[in-house]
User: Which sequence fits this backbone?
């Protein structure tokens, strides 16, 4: 048994490492992905290009504008003076927000009336637009409060601080709310899935294409030996990639790793059983490498989108949320993020670990059932 | 049924009423034959006739729909994995790993066949010498020529010294010199008592076989030694006609009564006729009248190709009325 598996492993490793493109896929792609997610992909919204349409042009209106311009969130790109420019700027995407102060703003304020401030945002990207609107609400609220207390002071002849509730927010586990702390551990999960899915499905289908598969089927090798020979090498590569991404994340991006590394590798092992099992299943239904590639992506993209990697599962429609329970990535993301950021252990993570183990055993069992040396 | 068991001492392959259907399509239709130990058995037939399907059932990668059979004494229905230990198989498709070296390919297969460590080195050297690859053991297989690859593939398939070897169109796409060398190898193995089951559609290769089976549309339509097939199975006679402008002459000859078929063959024509003497006279007469310079018109021993073409056409004629009824 081990003699044959040993020779399968030697052969697979020779083939992988002799192919320069393969080396790139295995070692370069994960690093590039971490760099992209560590540097470029950020959901923090800052320096929003903003236009100011100040029709009032009074000291009061200029003070209000400076409240916006003074933050790191808004950068005033242009002052506009006529109506037509509003649509023009938004249509061309030159600015994402327009602050418009109508004529009479300053007078109204002085007269004790409630003037209106209009903020127009480009709603194409709904996430960014929402965040921008949150900022404007905060800034306006803060400004109103000051206007109010100044008014009190003038009326009563002394400075007044009206009673109010002060909010004290503290994000645990990611004190500065850096999106890279959220994404880098997630990259481990998605990159390992992509690489092991592709390598496994391709490794089998390539043999079908070149005809060596038929030759192997005519040897006395057992299905178990063949499947182990086709999964163990890619499991080892998957684990090497976990180490690689973890090292880059921890030492380059200073992503904290607060939990137990041994637990991380155990969970990776369970998770790999699911991805390798799916990879093998794909290889049993595909006859060409193109088919295998298409099937891999057909599985991979929904798996990533419905995992909570980028979009919270809680926001999805209920029926889709049920679907995510079938997604191994969903569980593994909870485990990696829990281990990296929260430092939690098996006492809390056991349901996810158990789910991965069960799914892994089922997919591998199913894949080996589908694999037959004699076709009927 | 008894013949299957009775003969397993002298026979390497026995099948009876072997059948394989794919949906409603019958790829192999109740085929029965025997291959004796140490024999070179040639399995002939046009593409799509069911050669490969039959071989795939014999080597245990495709389950038969019906029928029984044994290979090397093991049941093809229930002992497929036992069969795999006792056979070597080489297909028309190149079956080595291109990105591995000659030596790595041999090591891989000898690991898969679990060759006894004591024999490993000797077997490896045997393959390398047999394939003539002494100076290429560390070359990637991808750079080898077709003939080398083919001998190496055969070597890898018989590392475990199986008593029965199946070769599925082993020489397709290989130059004539390599083909000749390959057949020398097959003779050598056969001389050592190895049974060789080979499919081909090269007629010259068919002549090298001890016995032949002709499969057409899933049915075995003839079997026997090349001599028997040529002398006994063909009901018609064959004439060789050598004359000027053979292509034009073909059209003329086809008009004569009692002529079944005319085909270009080498420099001249092969003409299938019902009766030699009358046809010789008729053809010579006609060609001379039309002004063709005739060198030779005489009856010959038909080539295997003539035999097969005539058998296949006879089968087609027999089946046509049936098909029309079906429609």
Assistant:
């Amino acid at each position: 048994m081990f003699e044959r598996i040993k020779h399968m492993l030697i052969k697979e490793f020779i083939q992988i490492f002799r192919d320069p493109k393969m080396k790139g896929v295995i070692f370069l792609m994960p690093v590039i992905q971490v760099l992209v997610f560590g540097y470029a992909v950020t959901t923090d919204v800052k320096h929003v290009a903003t236009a100011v349409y100040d029709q009032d042009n009074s000291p009061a209106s200029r003070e209000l504008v400076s409240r916006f311009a003074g933050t790191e969130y808004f950068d005033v790109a242009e002052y506009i003076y006529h109506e037509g420019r509003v649509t023009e700027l938004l249509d061309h995407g030159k600015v994402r927000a327009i602050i418009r102060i109508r004529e009479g703003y300053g007078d109204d304020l002085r007269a004790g009336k409630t003037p209106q401030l209009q903020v127009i945002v480009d709603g194409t990207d709904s996430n960014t637009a929402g965040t921008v609107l949150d900022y404007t609400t905060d800034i306006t609220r803060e400004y109103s409060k000051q206007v109010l207390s100044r008014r009190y002071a003038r009326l009563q002849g002394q400075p007044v601080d009206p009673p109010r509730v002060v909010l004290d927010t503290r994000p645990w586990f990611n004190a500065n709310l850096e999106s890279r702390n959220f994404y880098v551990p997630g990259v481990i999960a998605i990159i390992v899935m992509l690489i092991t899915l592709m390598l496994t499905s391709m490794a089998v289908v390539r043999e079908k294409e070149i005809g060596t598969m038929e030759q192997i089927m005519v040897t006395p090798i057992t299905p178990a030996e063949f499947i182990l020979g086709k999964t163990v090498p890619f499991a080892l590569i998957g684990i090497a990639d976990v180490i690689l991404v973890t090292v880059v994340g921890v030492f380059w991006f200073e992503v904290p790793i607060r939990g137990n590394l041994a637990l991380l590798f155990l969970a990776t092992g369970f998770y790999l059983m699911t991805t390798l099992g799916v990879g093998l299943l794909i290889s049993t239904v595909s006859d060409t490498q193109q088919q295998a590639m298409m099937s891999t992506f057909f599985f991979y993209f929904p798996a990533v989108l419905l995992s909570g990697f980028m979009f919270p599962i809680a926001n999805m429609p209920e029926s889709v949320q049920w679907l995510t329970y079938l997604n191994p990535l969903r569980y593994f993301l909870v485990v990696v993020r829990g281990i990296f950021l929260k430092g939690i252990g098996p006492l809390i993570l056991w349901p996810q670990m158990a789910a991965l183990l069960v799914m892994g055993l089922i997919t591998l069992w199913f894949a080996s059932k589908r694999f037959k040396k004699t076709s009927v | 049924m008894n013949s299957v068991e009775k003969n397993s001492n002298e026979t390497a392959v026995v099948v009876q009423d072997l059948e394989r259907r794919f949906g409603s399509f019958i790829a192999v239709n109740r085929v029965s034959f025997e291959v004796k130990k140490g024999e070179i058995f040639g399995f002939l037939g046009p593409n799509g006739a069911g050669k490969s399907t039959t071989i795939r059932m014999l080597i245990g990668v495709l389950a038969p729909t019906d029928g029984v059979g044994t290979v090397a004494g093991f049941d093809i229905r229930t002992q497929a994995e036992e069969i795999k230990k006792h056979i070597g198989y080489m297909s028309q498709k190149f079956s080595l790993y291109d990105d591995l070296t000659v030596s790595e390919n041999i090591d891989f297969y000898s690991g898969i066949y679990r060759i006894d460590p004591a024999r490993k080195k000797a077997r490896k050297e045997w393959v390398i010498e047999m394939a003539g690859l002494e100076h290429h053991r560390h070359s990637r297989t991808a750079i080898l020529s077709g003939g080398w690859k083919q001998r190496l593939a055969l070597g890898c398939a018989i590392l475990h010294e199986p008593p029965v070897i199946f070769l599925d169109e082993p020489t397709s796409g290989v130059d004539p010199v390599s083909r000749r060398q390959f057949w020398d190898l097959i003779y050598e193995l056969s001389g050592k008592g190895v049974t060789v089951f080979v499919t081909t559609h090269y007629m010259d290769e068919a002549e090298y076989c001890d016995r032949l089976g002709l499969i057409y549309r899933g049915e075995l339509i003839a079997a026997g030694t090349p001599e028997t097939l040529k002398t006994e199975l063909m009901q018609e006679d064959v004439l060789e006609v050598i004359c000027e402008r053979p292509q034009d002459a073909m059209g003329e000859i086809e008009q004569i009564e009692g002529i079944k078929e005319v085909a270009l063959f080498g420099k001249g024509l092969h003409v299938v006729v019902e009766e030699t003497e009358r046809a010789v006279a008729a053809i010579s007469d006609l060609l001379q009248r039309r002004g063709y310079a005739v060198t030779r018109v005489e009856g010959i021993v038909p080539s295997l190709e003539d035999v097969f073409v005539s058998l296949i056409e006879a089968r087609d004629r027999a089946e046509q009325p049936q098909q029309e009824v079906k429609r």
